[in-house]
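$ run holo --ligand "guanosine-5'-diphosphate" --emit C-alpha cells
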Amino acid sequence: MTSERPVDGRGRSPASNRAAGQGRRGQPRVLELPPTITVQRLAELTDQTPIDVIKQLMRNGIMASMNQIIDYQMATLVTAAFGIRTSMAEPEAAVAAASASKSRPADDDSHLVTRSPVVTILGHVDHGKTALLDAIRRTNVAEHEVGGITQHIGAYQVETQGQQITFLDTPGHEAFTAIRARGSQITDIAILVVAADDGIMPQTEEAINHAKAAKVPIIVAINKMDLPGADPERVKRQLSEHDLLVEDWGGEIISVEVSARTGDGLDDLLQNIAVVAEVAELKANPDKPATGVIIEAKLDRRRGPLATLLVQDGTLKLGEYITAGGTFGRIKAITNDQGKSIKSVPPGAPAEILGLGSLPEAGDAFAVVDNERQARSMANDRAKTFSQQAQSRALTLEEVVNRTAAGDVKELNIVLKADVQGSVEAVRQALEGLTAEGAKVRVLHGGSGGITESDVLLASASQAIVVGFTVGTEPSAERLADRMGVPIRHYDIIYQLIDDISQALFGILEPVYTDVIIGRAEIREIFPTRQGVNIAGCRVTEGRITRGATVRVMRDGELLQESSIASLRHFRDEVNEMTNGSDCGIILQGFNDVEVGDILETHRQERGQR
Ligand code: GDP
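-- output --
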C-alpha cells in the first residue's frame, strides 16, 4: 500500500469576477496593495472594521486573526467583496536587499576575527543534558549580582583559556533540527551525552544521525561517571558500532568522561570544545552590520516581544533596525546572558533584544538594515514566502530527488521507520543495496516505531522523504509534514517499497529521451496559393498527422528539413488530426520548397526509463 498526501485543496474563488466595484464618486477605486499585509492594515486601507475583514476571509474558508499576515491573493478576496479593485505594489525587498548589501564592506581577511563556537547538547532522555548545561553554567558563569540569579535567555557563554564558548540552552536533536528545517545552521559543535551506566539508547542513535545529517563535528561526553555502574568502555564499543570511532579506539572522535553531578571532567570537556573550534577555524567580521538567527522568542506582558538571537557575523548595536523572519523593529534594549544591559553584541554571542513588532520564530534569520522602510519590506517579503510555503503541498518523490544537488553521485535521502529493529535493518540493507549508475539511496536515520515530528524535521532539514514500513504516523507529525511539505510514504509490503524507491532512484538519473514516429504522409501533389504558399497535398500512409506536430521532411530517404505543421486541412476545413489512409493538405512552418514524393514524418521525444 502506498499513499501520498493529497494536494492542498483550499477552495478559493477567483476574486476578479467581482472586483470591478465602484468607488465613492462612481469611479472604480484601485487600491495598491503590498505582496503581503496584516488583516488590521487591510481593514484600515479599505475603511472596514477588522471584524468585517475577518468575516470575509472566513467566508472564503480562511481563518485569520487581526495581526495575521495574509498574501495579496487572500487580500483580493476581501477587497473584491467590498467592491474595491486592487493592484499589487512592486516588492521593495529586492531593492532593499541590494542597497543593504551595497552599504556593507566586503569581507577582506584583515577584518576577520575568530568567533565563539556555538555548541548544542544532544542525547537520550535522562542521560543528563540539562544537568550538564546547568553544571557548566554554574561552575563557569559568574552569578549575576542582583539576587544571585543568572538570567536564562536561551543561550549562555562560558570562558575557557581566554576563549568564549556559546551553549544553546535548549538541548536535544528536535530543537537542533527544527532550526535547520527553517534553513539556518547555528551549531558548530554537537556534544553527544551518553550516560555511562545506560549506554547508547534509541534517542542517542537519533541524535547521532541528526548531527551527522547536519555535518556537525561531534564530541562525546560520557556522563554519570560517578555512578558505580558506569562502564565507559561499553559506551565506546557501542559508539564504534555507529561509525563513531573514539580516539582510544584509533578513531578521531573526542570522548570525555564527565559527571554533571560532581563536576568532574567538565574543564576537560570545555578545553576539547575549544580545540575542535580552533580546528574548525570559525571566523567572522565584527566590522559589518549583524546577521544571525533567532533562537528563542517570547512575549513579555509589559515590554512586548523579546527575542534571543545569536549573532553569526557582524556586530549588532543598540538602535539599529533589523528584520527577523516576517517581523521587524528597532532595537530598544539589549541584554546579555548575565542579565546585564549592553550596547553591542559581537559575532558568536547570544543576546536578548527588545523592539521587534511581533514574535519571530526560532530558526528565523535576522539581518540589520539601513532604515525602517527596508526592514518593513524585507519582513513583508519573508512573510509572503512563508504564506506561500504554508499553502504548498507535499512534494512528490520525483520532486524531492530533483531538488538534490546535481553532483557526481545523486542521492535520495530517506528517513526510515519500521515496526521493529529487525525490519529496519532488513529494509535499510535492501535500500542501500539499490544501485543505479550515478545515484544512490542514503538512509539518514532508521529507527523502530511510528513516524514522529523529529523524523519529519530531519527529512525537511535534509531534503529527504520519510518512509514508514508497517508503521503509522503520529497525528502531530502528519500535521507538521503537511505544513513543511515533507512527503511521507507508507508501505506494508517490502517489495513495493523497494520497487517505488528504485523507480525514484532511476528517475534521479538524467532521463533518456527516445524519438518516436507518430505518423507518415507522402506528398502527392503541390497546390500553390495566390500568395505563393505551397500546400502539400498528402496521403497519410502511417499512424496519424496532427496540427502543430514537429515534422521531418524526408527526400530520397534523407532528412531535408525539420519543421512543424502550421496548417492541416481536409478539403476546405482546418482539422486537428488526420489518420492513416486519408488525404489532406499541409502547410509547413517556414518551409515552402516541398516536392512531390517527399515524405513528411511527424515525431516526438518520449521520456523513457533506463
Ligand atoms: P536530560 O533528560 O538529558 O536533560 O537529563 P537530566 O539532566 O534531566 O538528568 C536526568 C537525571 O539524571 C536527573 O535526575 C539528574 O540528576 C541525573 N544526572 C544527570 N547527570 C548526572 C551525573 O553526572 N551523575 C548522576 N549520578 N546523576 C546525574
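-- notes --
The pocket of guanosine-5'-diphosphate is lined by residues 123, 125-131, 171, 223-224, 226-227, 259-261 (CB under 6 Å).
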